[in-house]
Amino acid sequence: MNDDPLLARLAGLAVEPPDGLLDRIAARWIAVPSPIGELSVAWTARGVAYVHQGDGFSGAFRARFGRPLMPATRPPAGLVPALRTGRLSGLALDLEELGEFQRDVLRAVQAVPRGEVRPYAWIAARAGRPGAVRAVGTALARNPVPLLVPCHRVTRSDGALGEYVFGPAAKQRLLLAEGVDLGRLDGLAKERVFYLASDTTGVVCFPTCHNARRITPAHRHGFRTLGAARTAGYRPCRTCRPDLQAA
DNA sequence: AGGAGGGCTTCTA
DNA sequence: GTAGAAGCCCTCC
């Protein structure tokens, strides 16, 4: 037997690496509640890296990140509120694994406020690739951190909600939970109205822009295209920037 | 290495 | 209304 304390600690190190090292190599994970049910969330020292719904979490994580996963006893500070509200408020994300295009797209998506929606084409323009509309869809399909990067707020230009990583039903539930009036949006889309203008301010907005929601009915005018609104003398809202996606 | 094909779209006929 | 192709990025072969 050897009771030298130094040797005993060295032996311990051989079996179990110190916490700091392990945390740099491995990711932690935990199951947390969300508006669409329980989610599995993984994070590294840099921030939250992966949000997953349903079965196959650890397999999907390994396939994607190729690093070990260890259970945690509590979520990172602010994670649960961020999932509930769709606002990060300081919560860090680890998006290191992603390509530049995908990071640009996710950054553009962060600009869509809670309770509002924007078209895929708007995201493409904001990401600096106005023609990459289809590729934006692909990038969002691979969004590793849904809810935290609110890709559920990106909808089709024709008014349909479009697809979603966790399925269209989850997209709908999330938007309703944020207070988006989907019935009204649908009504507008049926009339081919995708922009709302106010003749008191002379400004034209996306229908879910908080500025558009305050237009009184008597002063509200709907337009199918931004060009039509401009011809009628309206200028694009500086908050929701409908001019970003189309000429 | 390089091309084909696919994906949360969108525009056109 | 809907089918088809354009279009861009990524993955895989």
TrEMBL record:
Key words, A-Z: Activator, DNA damage, Methyltransferase, Transferase
CDD domains with a match to the protein in the record: ATase (cd06445)
Transmembrane regions listed in the UniProt entry: none
Domain Ada DNA repair metal-binding: 192-243
Domain Methylated-DNA-[protein]-cysteine S-methyltransferase DNA binding: 100-180
Molecular-function GO terms, alphabetical: methyltransferase activity
Gene Ontology annotations of biological process type: methylation
InterPro entries named in the record: Ada-like_dom_sf, Ada_DNA_repair_Zn-bd, MethylDNA_cys_MeTrfase_DNA-bd, MethylDNA_cys_MeTrfase_DNAb, MGMT_N_sf, WH-like_DNA-bd_sf
Protein's recorded name: O-6-methylguanine DNA methyltransferase
